[in-house]
Amino acid sequence: MSTIRKIIPFSLYDIPGLEQWLEGQANQGLFPTHLGSWATFEDRGVPGTRFRLDPFANRAGEGLEPTQEKLELYRQAGWEYAFRVGRAYFLFYTTDPHTPELFSDYQSQGLSLDRLANSLRSYHRRKIVLWSLLGILFLAALFLGHQYDVQPDNFVRLPLILLYAFDPILLLFLAGIFFYSRPIDRRDRKALFSTYNALKDGLPPPPSPGPSRRIVRENIAALVLGPILVALVLYNQFGDSRLTLRPVEEFTAPYISLYDLEQVPLGPYETVYRKNSGLSSENVAQRYFSLLSPVWYEVSQDLDALQPGRKPSTFSPDPHGGEYTYSPNLDMTYFHTLPPLAKPVARAQMDLYRLVNLYWSYEEVDWPGTDFVILATVEDDPWQMAAVGRGGRVAVFCYAGVEKLSDHLDLLAEMVQ
């Protein structure tokens, strides 16, 4: 007995259409064994077989399989049980053309669809609630959580959120929801409720719109692209650092080296102290992906003076040794984005770098070969920030050390020249 698979050209909520299609397959000698995005058949169908979809779980004690009482009752009426279709129907069939219908009238058949109709309404309401909650959480993230921030700005990071939103994998996921799932949901609701409302009014169900090539394409897309999309989303969440994260010494894209910025001999912790720091975040570079910023990466550097103090890994204002080792650090993020987004993205990244318990002073200065230069300093504190931009190229720096970023604008501006 051979197995044959076919893509279903009907919505599973188009009850008349699906039943008629199964009967057409039986006339070709095929009997169904599975219905989903595709149908599985065996070549043991009997021409003239009738199929009926019976919605389940309307009665007490009935779950994902029909009760023995139902099976016996239907068998006595001439109907045999085939299998369950998702969480919606039991499929029954008969080869006797004289077997009476499962339901004695249209209204009783309509009542059998109550649970399925209510389930679809509930699913629609849950989706509305879910998207509303996501919107509320997004607004809460903008307006809450600033209790320790001495300079809160609720909207300054929106340009960065926009860049993250244009991650290709995220866009593919959202496109699947809005341009794939929503039309299918609307069509399924229309198919079910047109049948449900007619039957409850004692009328025959409206005729099926017939087989649809679009539904076939959608089911093929679900079979092919669904697993790929799930794998991409999981990899994006849990595994992409293996692809995007690199030690600085292996990174080939341009960046400003902390060695060039500082005036004292420096080295990584392992070189200075001859042992592993145990910190995986030191001196690494990471790439990000956005359709609005095809080139986007961050380089983090944390070095120590080769003339160490007695206590390591603590910033000291004295670069020539002393009680604590001088340990400057420099973080840089580079974007190549759309020119109108350049300055807003620069301000957003500076706000992301900003230590929220410090009060920052911002200043814009002119510098040859740039469209803008923004400097940020903290009074009596080593932390500084700078952003330079030209066209769509932006470089944002966050630095802790004895040097003044304002004295090195020629070096910083090289990133956007």
Brief characterization of the structure:
By secondary structure, this protein is an alpha+beta fold.
Overview of the molecule:
With 417 residues, the protein is α+β, with helices and mostly antiparallel strands. Helix content is 38%, strand content 21%. It has twelve helices and 16 strands. The protein has an eight-stranded antiparallel sheet with strand order 7-9-10-12-16-15-14-13. The chain has a three-stranded antiparallel sheet with strand order 1-3-2. A hairpin with a 2-residue loop joins strand 15 (383-390) and strand 16. Helix 6 crosses helix 7. The longest helix is centred in the middle third of the chain and has 33 residues, at 168-200. It is elongated. The relative contact order is 0.09. The chain crosses the membrane at residues 128-148, 160-180, 220-238. Pfam families: DUF2812. This is DUF2812 domain-containing protein.
